[in-house]
Amino acid sequence: MLILNSHPDHGAALDPRDTAMLDAAATAEVAAYLAHRPDHRPTPLHALPALATELGVAAIHIKDEGPRLGLGSFKALGGAYAVIRLVLAEAGRALGRPVDYAEMQSGAVRRIASGLTIACATDGNHGRSVAQGAELIGARCVIFMHERVSDARVAAIARFGAEIVRVPGTYDDSVTEAARVANERGWITVSDTSWPGYEHIPGLVMQGYTALVAETVKALPAPPTHVFVQAGVGGLAAAVAGHMALVLGDTRPTMIVVEPERAACLYESARAGRPVKIAHGEPTVMAMLECYDPSPLAWRVLSRAADAFMTVGEDDAVAAMNRLARPAGDDPAIVAGESGGAGLAGFIRIAGDTTRRAALGIGPDARILAINSEGATDPERYRALTGLDPAMPPG
């Protein structure tokens, strides 16, 4: 399914609050933080010329977030950054002076951090980032995970010393429970979704994601004409669409938001013209995108900066994983998790439909960008869906 953005705000300038959150100055703040992370390296940007020829476009590039900060996904940029920003702000209040990123592992900051508890809900990747940030700066961390999250993803978070709390139901249920408990106990909730009165922290999370957009824009030989970006609650999609609108202006690409058919809360929001919470259905293989309630903060950006919304099926997602793992010609092999290839899956689905290609203005000169938002964050699941070991090149 595909719909064009018909919201009255489509194409309008971002809300000033969102401009401050996503502009070049905000990205420079993220870069200052990353400069003090010795494990930080820009992630690869891969060209796929064989696939581009097959699908009838000039170029396809994939930004591969699998290697990001050792956590396997783009989420590594958001949660940890928000944790560090919040703890340093608290340290600044306690010490009565500004506290720089260079001090984030100092004894004074860690003593203050040790008295703080950071909490969040997660499907896996966001919680991994929050837990890593808390460990890095010395704060206690409690992560709420719903019953469908795999044991492998639970273990990947627990290794950072976080306490894990299992919650019956879905991701949205875990968000509600995390916020309730944190509010009762005076903990700091670092959520990647927003709700009324709670925007600053998810805004910091989204701000962290702009680092990958800035890296991509710098590395591309020419700006993309079309970006297919996957969405759960919408934070990544909003960061990509908003930052590109701000830094590229009139040359910004056409932005297409891609969701699972079984969890398409932004698609339904676009149809309704306002944020819409949808009913829970059958679980999707795209576990990191299984969200039923969009972030109002992300929607505020996407209602202006996204141009179309679409859905992909289960088979589409798995096929994209396998196509990236087993490329044609000289295209590089890319390890993409169940949700990682969803953006590319969206383009592949559109590429075979002449009517929808025309609706999006995708011709032979189009330059397509997609983001592999995660690597094999659940290796057993990856093996089951591709028949390959994610640690080994295909052979």
What's the average pLDDT?
A: 96
Q: Tally of extended strands?
A: 11
Rg, please? 20 Å
Total number of helices: 16
> What structural class do the secondary elements suggest?
alpha/beta
- The total tally of domains equals 2
- State the share of residues found in helices, binned by percent: 40-55%
Report on the biggest sheet. 7 strands, mixed
What's the layout of helices and strands?
Blueprint: E1 2-4, H1 16-22, H2 24-34, E2 45-47, H3 49-55, E3 59-64, H4 79-95, H5 107-113, E4 117-122, H6 125-137, E5 140-146, H7 151-158, E6 163-167, H8 171-185, E7 188-189, H9 200-219, E8 226-230, H10 235-248, E9 254-260, H11 265-272, H12 296-305, E10 308-312, H13 314-325, H14 342-351, H15 354-360, E11 367-372, H16 379-386
Parallel strand pairs: 3-11, 4-5, 4-7, 5-6, 8-9, 8-11, 9-10
Antiparallel strand pairs: 1-10, 2-3
Helix pairs in contact: 2-9, 4-5, 4-6, 4-9, 6-7, 9-10, 10-12, 13-14
